[in-house]
Amino acid sequence: MTTSPPAGCSFLKGPHTGIQPNAATSRRSPPPPTEFHLQPRELRLHLAAAPPASSRHPPRLQSSRPRRCMLRCPPPRRLCLRLRLRLGSPVSTMASTLAFLRPSAPAPLAASRGAARGVPAAVRVPCRSRVSAAGVSLGSEVAVGSDALFADYKPTTAFLFPGQGAQTVGMGAEAVNVPAAAKLFDKANDILGYDLLDFCTNGPKEKLDSTVISQPAIYVTSLAAVEVLRSRDGGQNVIDSVDVTCGLSLGEYTALAFAGAFSFEDGLKLVKLRGEAMQDASDAASSAMVSVIGLDSEKVQQLCDAANEEVDEKERVQIANFLCPGNYAVSGGVKGIEAVEAKAKSFKARMTVRLAVAGAFHTSFMQPAVSRLESALAETEIKTPRIPVISNVDASPHSDPDTIKKILARQVTSPVQWESTVKTLMGKGLEKSYELGPGKVIAGILKRIDKGASIENIGA
């Protein structure tokens, strides 16, 4: 039996490549062949009708000498594994061998606890090929599914990073005493063109609260908090123990930087542009955000529906942040937000709190910012994170750089799924969390979701 290589692939043959059927089976009609197809996005095994289970002689291919052929499909920049099937193995063995293939993910960070947690991933091959054989010895490079690396992550320790609204005058003061943290502010000054640490420590508050300054300020201060923790006794062990991270809105960029998806500098450039783009989108329309306290998400949605009945379409509101039970942020036109505030008491809300942000974040009001973000993301090198980073958009981790770019562009117009994120982490066995950065907003949200949750604040 002979085979011909598909386009883009080549056979590597040993000195003996002829394969001869067993004499016992050659006197009968040859059994239907087993064929497997290596396709761009999956590995499939197609078995032709096999002999009945009662057959005394399952079909085998044998040879007088050890032989093998190798099909190599080199997948660029992908984690690969080698598949081998021995001569003389029954068809059923070959099928079961292919069926169990599930490679493990690389270790997150350089965990001090040693072993990496294995994560199942889809088996994929980047070239299309077809080989018809039965029981041949194969060596094939099979690439791992690009966005499935963290599909079955098992969290134990998390770093959680705050978003806009956590800023406060005086933040960053501790960073001055930690050289590695102070260096981040020095780098930020070069990129931003102004003294960020001065705004953080001295204000004025009105300036610090502006979107264009608060977003870079929170990003840098939060990563400076990591360096503050690192400088403490046992801090490096805590950092090494972290196996999942996420951030609230802006904090997702901080989490991605911590996980190594992009450099501190590239992340800051993205955050700077994000803040400017969101500020411009806010200036283009009269919009706002308000927190509704004391209602579940269904009641808040009913409140939004009632408010939307009284305003024009361009003023409509929606839930923008699903934070925790009893605390949901609503975004929309100013008139729609005012209608929400006026009707909240009739829906038994405890209170409403207008948020110190420039506009209706995480709604279609931010659509003008998307194209600018997409252009900046396209020019930014993003790598597969070392540990899972949970997305605000779908409360799931992503490992494919292109997918991460698309998620970040969508994030500014999509509701933040923070409640689902925290509940998923808790349900998967999360044991300990750290909030790194200014304020204690995340700690409060976490306790509202699970009173027994363990969380520690690390400021800078």
TrEMBL record:
Record-level Gene Ontology MF annotations: [acyl-carrier-protein] S-malonyltransferase activity
Coiled coil location: none
Source superkingdom: Eukaryota
Pfam entry (one): Acyl_transf_1
Biased composition (Polar residues): 19-28
Malonyl-CoA:ACP transacylase (MAT) domain boundaries: 160-459
Region (Disordered): 1-37, 49-69
Name of the protein in its database record: Malonyl-CoA:ACP transacylase (MAT) domain-containing protein
Annotated organism of origin: Oryza rufipogon (Brownbeard rice)
